[in-house]
């Protein structure tokens, strides 16, 4: 019953590899080292076969055809390929993109790049629960719009956008729909057919696979999506992403997807029960807000603001017990409040006291109870110090 500390509650940042995934990938670093593009000997065939099998498991998890999967180094590269590749392919015709201010930086910074190249981008706001307003989306569409990019689920809050409604609007206006589903795939059911998705990005290290491998789903039919490669040389991956395939990484990504498919329902239930119990216990502290608590959310994540505490101090005090994430990022010397929570209307002061806790496959009830105990103690201490007027500066 020994608890390994600190308890890891930051699965939205990255997940630990599943030991079964590691076991599956190891031989591809040693005995099975072949290049999947070598067509003249058994080393190559063996690697190609392993990649084919992985591609099937990965495609199957999102309801895609294996040939619609383009391997990349991760979701960031997949987003870059999707947005820049579409822009380059059709820039003579249309140049407007609609996205959302709460997207991951991978999307926001790539959109900025397109603006620098002469494109135009509309950044939709969100409501206080983190959801976009579908009427605002409808109104943002112009005859020049070629792409709507809305993430499936948010990495900070877990908010799940109304994907089917968004894709219906895109389709009715003959606009392509890209979703960054990095936080959703493997955690909640995602299906490119049922959801009407044209392009989708995801990443192995967010679903118990290794870092450095991900994929872009590119629809082949109704419509056939065309994009210009951003990395040339050799014509791998249907000419969309050249370079020798990362065979061990891809094998692991495939195994990770296979396991997710098996566990998605049971883990969703188990983790939402853990998350709900965590929230319920913390609510007993009073003066805390569960951000986007009334919106559709991922089952395993929560974003909580604690009133009347010192967020900076809490991080230090909790560090040996809990690994979690603060909704502010240190950029050079200043503490930048989260733009996602800002967009939802939280004050800078409160954002500094706001934290993300994300559970995962290896989270246990015992870990959650320990986290509740540690946080409760810290919050109570901070509040009692405030009430007694000793404002200790750390
Ligand atoms: C982690 C993450 C990314 C980046 O993925 P990488 O594979 O690390 O490049 C993109 N979007 C979202 C929503 C993420 O959570």
From TrEMBL:
The keyword Iron-sulfur applies. One of its GO terms (molecular function) is cysteine desulfurase activity. Its EC number is 2.8.1.7. Residues 7-369 form the Aminotransferase class V domain. Its cofactor is pyridoxal 5'-phosphate. Keywords: 2Fe-2S, Iron, Iron-sulfur, Metal-binding, Pyridoxal phosphate, Transferase. It catalyses: (sulfur carrier)-H + L-cysteine = (sulfur carrier)-SH + L-alanine. The keyword Nucleus does not apply. It holds the Pfam family Aminotran_5. Belongs to the class-V pyridoxal-phosphate-dependent aminotransferase family. NifS/IscS subfamily. This is cysteine desulfurase.
């Amino acid at each position: 019953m020994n608890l390994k500390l600190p308890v890891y509650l930051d699965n939205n940042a990255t997940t630990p590899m599943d030991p079964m995934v590691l076991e599956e990938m190891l031989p591809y670093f040693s005995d099975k080292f072949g290049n999947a593009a070598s067509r003249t000997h058994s080393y190559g065939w063996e690697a190609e076969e392993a990649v084919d099998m992985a591609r099937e498991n990965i495609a199957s998890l999102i309801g895609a055809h294996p040939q619609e999967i383009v391997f990349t180094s991760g979701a960031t590269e997949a987003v870059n390929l999707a947005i820049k590749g579409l822009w380059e392919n059709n820039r003579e015709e249309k140049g407007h993109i609609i996205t959302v201010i709460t997207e991951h930086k991978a999307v926001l910074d790539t959109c900025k790049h397109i603006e620098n190249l002469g494109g135009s981008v509309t950044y939709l706001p969100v409501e206080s629960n983190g959801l976009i307003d579908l009427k605002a989306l409808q109104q943002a569409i112009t005859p020049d719009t070629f792409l709507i990019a809305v993430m499936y689920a948010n990495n900070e809050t877990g908010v799940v956008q109304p994907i089917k409604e968004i894709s219906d609007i895109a389709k009715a206006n003959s606009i392509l729909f890209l979703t960054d589903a990095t936080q959703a795939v493997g955690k909640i059911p995602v299906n490119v057919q049922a959801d009407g998705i044209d392009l989708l990005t995801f990443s192995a290290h967010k679903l118990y696979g290794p870092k450095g491998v991900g994929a872009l789903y590119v629809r082949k039919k109704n419509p056939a999506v065309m994009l210009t490669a951003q990395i040339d040389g050799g014509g791998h991956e249907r000419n969309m992403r050249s370079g020798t395939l990362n065979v061990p990484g891809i094998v692991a990504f495939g195994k990770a997807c296979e396991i997710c498919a098996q566990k998605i329902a049971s883990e969703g239930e188990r983790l939402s029960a853990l998350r709900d119990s965590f929230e319920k216990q913390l609510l007993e502290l009073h003066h805390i807000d569960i951000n986007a608590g009334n919106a559709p959310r991922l089952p395993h994540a929560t974003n909580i603001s604690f009133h009347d505490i010192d967020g900076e101090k809490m991080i230090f005090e909790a560090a040996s017990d809990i690994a979690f994430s603060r909704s502010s990022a240190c950029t050079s010397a200043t503490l930048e409040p989260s733009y996602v929570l800002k967009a939802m209307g939280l004050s800078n002061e409160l954002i500094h006291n706001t934290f993300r806790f994300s559970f995962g496959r290896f989270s246990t009830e015992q870990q959650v109870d320990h986290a509740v105990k540690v946080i409760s103690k810290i919050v109570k201490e901070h509040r009692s110090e405030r009430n007694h007027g000793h404002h200790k500066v750390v």
